[in-house]
Amino acid sequence: MNEARGLFEQTFATNYMNLRSVFPSQEKAAEQAVDLAKLVIQGLKVEASLIEQWSLEMYMKYNVNFDIIKTPVLRLEGVSGWYSSKLLLGAFFWTRYRDYLLRIKHWDQEAVDSIDDSTNEIMRSLGNPNENHSFDKRGLVLGYVQSGKTANFTGLINKAFDVGYKLVIVLSGVHNDLRAQTQLRLDEEVIGSRVDREGKPVGVAQIYANTPNHIISTWTTVERDISSEPSGIFNLNQRTLMVVKKNSIVLESLKNQLEYQKSLFKLDIPVLIVDDEADQASVDTSKQDEDPKTINKLIRQILEIFNRRCYVGYTATPFANLLISAEAKTEEEGKDLYPKDFLVGLLKPKEYCGPEEFFNVEEESDDPRPSLIRPLRDPDIEVFTGIKTKGDAGKFEEVPPQMEESILRFLLTIAVRNLRGQRNKHNSMLIHTSRFKDVQSSVKDGVDKVFKEITKQIQYNKNGEIVEVIKVIYEEDVIPTSREWPGYIQEFSWEEVYQELRESSKKVRVFEINGNSKDALDYHQYKEDGLNVIAVGGDKLSRGLTLEGLSITYYFRNTLMYDTLMQMGRWFGYRKGYMDLCRIYTTAEIASNFEHLAIAMIELRKEFDRLALANKTPLEYAVKMLSHPTMTLTSPLKMKNAAITNIIYRLTLQQTRIYENKETFFSHNMKVTENFISELSSRFTKTHIGTGKTGYYMVPEVEVNTVLNFLSEYKTSQGADKVDSGKIVNYIRRVNENGELLHWTVAVVEGEPRDKSGLEKFPVQFGKFKIDSAVVRGVKAENNNNQGQTKIDIRAIVASRQEFIDLDQATIKNMKDKQDIRNLRPKEKGMLLIYPLHPKVKVFESLSFNFSEKMVPIGIAISFPNSELDDSKIYEVNKTIK
What we know:
The chain has 25 helices and 30 strands. It is of the alpha/beta class and 882 residues long. Strands 1-10-2-7-6-3-5-4 form an eight-stranded mixed beta sheet, sandwiched between helices. A six-stranded parallel beta sheet has the order 12-18-16-13-15-14. Helix 4 (92-104) packs antiparallel against helix 6 (149-163).
């Protein structure tokens, strides 16, 4: 019966997926697919009741009558209509790849449908390869870091070959490892040329072997990139795939060979260039009026060889790509790579762990989830702050305490995953502390030495110091975090874990991943038993290269650029069944920057979805990025055509998290707040919301000039990456001209009589106005010892829905989207909350300042309504957006 059921499902799946684009409804397609499946097994004497049961299972498994969430798209103009999913009815390459994902890789139907839908949207935006007139289409696909963008462009390539594209060039990173990784993947999942050691097919060839009519040639292999000496003359009028490194010598050789082919064969073929990590190296960073930078120039010159050409970039960080000039053009290179035609936003995949899973992106002070960040303390920080050049490699003399702890935690993670039934899965740990290879070598040698001592004690000294430390980590961190993590998680005794540790620790390897090392992260070679690896490296590990089963990260490097910072977050990805075991060891500053970035990314993605529904263009999305109120988007060289003049705060919550480590900073803000509150003191009314114990002293209808005077004097952290009082004042004055934000509700938040953190109440006095207690915030701050730190991040100060205390509670009770709720507030009214903060929280007490009833830290939060402010007047982009 198993054979009959397998045949039934295989027949149903193939036909249902093909027929969906033909029949008017999913149900009709499914009925036809069931009938065809019944015909195939009719000679196997299967009972009718069993066939009925299988049919129901197919309907559920393949989501019949479930609407696919449509892929959001921004386009310059409507599509020409040449492409329809009906073109792929019975198509060889896409059908084979789709069935491979479902039958061999066992992907969920929903995930495959998402790839199908998103690649259809991209295909609609490309030129018709079967028409002779020229076209030049350029677009960008916005995904998530480590989220499966490769699977998406693999689907796109398969479809492109099906509909008539002859040449596909994949630009894959700047390092050989990533290029080889991508080549291997496409050999398996497009070309169908891979076999295992026994000669059996691997990849899509397991579904259908290549036929003479479906051969794809390639100029590159896993071992060989394009070189100046071509390995042979290929006929580019046949399907050809190349995976090419973004390297000037390689691209120059490719350009020369393509030009030679064109002159030799009078080549006129449709070409698709897929640019993986399109914000890396591809963006022109030359100064104004200079020639384009080499990589950018060569990509553009290669495109210019062809009359029918499409460029599709893939990135998780589209900032640089969208902030270049839309009209930049040079005579020799043609147009720049601006995604003028389309911007496609891939949906967040199911079970993908991104910024929301690691960080408090909702910025709620009462976020209940346990933190996975483990802030580095002084002994570790001091080791790496002194290493500034490659000549400092000798300064790394021994593994610092928390780096050793992170290694112990990695061994624990492997053991617990094995006990959970995830044996023979890949497990990776990343150590990234420097871009200098000599330093990486020193760190690798140190880690190797410590690791050997650790494994020796695990094997032979059950009662030794190291084993005891591992036990403490397990019982005091791993178990409590897993218990607090959402969903049921199986627990194991220490004895079970220790016995597993003894076996699993023997299989861990320490690799150095850079150009000086022969080590390679070849997970494919270990796919049967799983690779357990501690990878020490730098830039090679910071972008593109996938670290399979990454759970523990020790990360020291920093940047304030959106794109660089986000790409370095290799801990994003699929962590099914072990997300609660993941940890990030980094500094409080880096953790803070990542959280700000995560918040910005979520906000910008929501803006993208909103603009897609409104049929806006990629250019209009660039405006939103320029006006976003947070960190530097990307390198100034990449932003050379964009000059931000003003920020838009509409429909956002701005709250002060960052504070200067200066007593004068706190005393100044206390005095300014005291003056403000004293001016309003006769008008305050105390209230509580619902059954909550938090008290609010509120004043409605405060004139805007009174609020502006306060905000003009209140100091936010110098160079603040999120809340800047000067920029906020500027925005309020601009919208005042439109009759907006003229009146304000001001609320002073009072702490609860008995706080759950155990702190006693702390009265605060603002002149004659007094509250019973300051508000406890900063308990979850990643670093409670701020000696020597110039800035302090206490995390979010606004509790859930606290910004809405001025709105009708019955109206907003069942509303979930915060932007929708902010939209209820009249445009002429703003909300200002003042938080006198409890100075006995460790994050403040460690400062040793003279806090008292008359001087406490003051935080503020502003909830902005919508605005009719004209976007087109708030920015300048040279010759780009008018």
